[in-house]
Design goal:
The complex is a heterodimer of chains A (102) and B (218). Chain A has 102 residues and is mainly alpha-helical. Chain A has a domain of 38 residues. In chain A, 77% of the residues lie in helices and 0% in strands. The relative contact order of chain A is 0.07. Chain B is globular and about 50 Å long. Chain B folds into two domains: 153 residues, no CATH class; 44 residues. With 218 residues, chain B is an all-alpha fold. Helix content of chain B is 67%, strand content 0%. In chain B, α1 packs parallel to α8. Chain B starts with 5 loop residues before the first helix and ends in a 12-residue tail after the last helix. The relative contact order of chain B is 0.17. Classes of the chains: A mainly alpha (102), B mainly alpha (218). At the A-B interface, α1, α2, α3 and α4 of A face α1, α2, α3, α4 and α5 of B.
């Protein structure tokens, strides 16, 4: 089994379980309040870490390269309230352009 | 208020469906660029049905960040669905099989759309909207994964910069208050500090401790 398939199966099963925990297991009982606050912050913390590692991550080092031009283009697109697809295409295009001329 | 129907949910979410199709197509393309074959990419959209976690798996595997990191990061990203599903639990009907199936249609967008003006959630809006999003997401992935075969070198196309841009765009929609902003800044800093020190994947998973900012005394 390839790494991709293992990830697909494990993440799939975990996600199905997470989405059904309320309707199937709990029936209607609430989650303890102190846990709700923590779980709600998981996504922002992890997404920010993904931005950092994907923008400047290298092989156990920080690499500053054309990806930063793409991230800059993405920031501009986000500030202009562009749709998600436009943000992503702008980032890829800016990075490809910098690589082309550099 | 007139009784809501599945069709109303589908109609209400249609504009987002277009975006979900495009988003699914970009997942298909980026998964192929990260070395994931078309079939597992499409199966993942059909079973996981959660954008940010799927992109996390593709980006971490693509950057040789390790299988365990990819799985842990994606599962933690989807951990938010536990409290969301708990909050929706009372609206579901029928036996465990039906509840299990219908609860898979919970995603951020269908959840937000199913909230009525009186603050309660509506099952038919959720299911109607969720089905549209699901169809768009999976069919978009099929198109993207098949088109991804004909792409050239992903770095020439700047596709490696598409990931941080995408995560930033999703992050912006998740930061609703000061505490979420603090968690994002702390998570980003933890990842930045650990980048030169730890093997790939570890900085992402370690950043999860920033969520402890949300701890409240029980």
């Amino acid at each position: 089994m390839s790494e991709a398939w293992i990830a697909v199966v494990v993440v799939g099963v975990a996600t199905i379980a997470l989405k059904s925990v309320g309707p199937v297991l709990l029936g209607g009982r609430p989650l303890p309040q102190h846990l709700t606050g923590i779980v709600g912050l998981l996504a922002p913390a992890l997404l920010a870490a993904l931005v950092v590692t994907q923008a400047v991550g290298g092989d156990e080092e920080i690499v500053l390269d054309a990806r930063l031009a793409g991230l800059g283009a993405a920031v501009v697109a986000i500030l202009l309230r562009a749709p998600l697809l436009v943000v992503v295409v702008a980032a890829a295009a800016a990075t490809a352009l910098v690589r082309l001329v550099a | 208020m007139t009784p809501s129907r599945y069709r109303d949910g589908a109609k209400k979410i249609a504009p987002i469906g277009v975006a979900a199709f495009a988003f699914g197509a970009s997942f298909g393309v980026l998964a192929r660029a990260s070395g994931i074959d078309s079939v597992p990419a499409i199966v993942m959209s059909g079973t996981t049905f959660a954008g940010s976690a799927q992109f996390a798996v593709a980006s971490i595997l693509g950057a040789a960040g390790g299988l365990v990191s990819a799985i842990v990061a994606a599962t933690l990203l989807n951990a938010r669905y536990a409290p969301i599903s708990v909050s929706l639990a009372p609206i579901f009907v029928g036996g465990p099989g039906r509840r299990l199936l219908e609860s898979q249609l919970i995603v951020d967008e269908s959840w937000a759309m199913s909230r009525r003006e009186d603050g309660r959630y509506d099952r038919k809006l959720l299911v109607g909207g969720g089905l549209v999003l699901y169809a768009c997401w999976v069919s978009g992935t099929v198109v993207g994964a098949l088109a991804g075969d004909d792409l050239g070198d992903p770095t020439d196309l700047g596709l490696d910069a598409a990931f941080p841009a995408l995560f930033l765009a999703i992050l912006v929609t998740q930061v609703h208050d000061r505490q979420a902003l603090a968690a994002a800044v702390l998570g980003g800093l933890i990842a930045l500090v650990l980048l030169p020190l730890a093997p790939a994947g570890v900085p992402i998973v370690a950043a999860a401790v920033a969520c402890l900012l949300g701890w409240r005394r029980p």
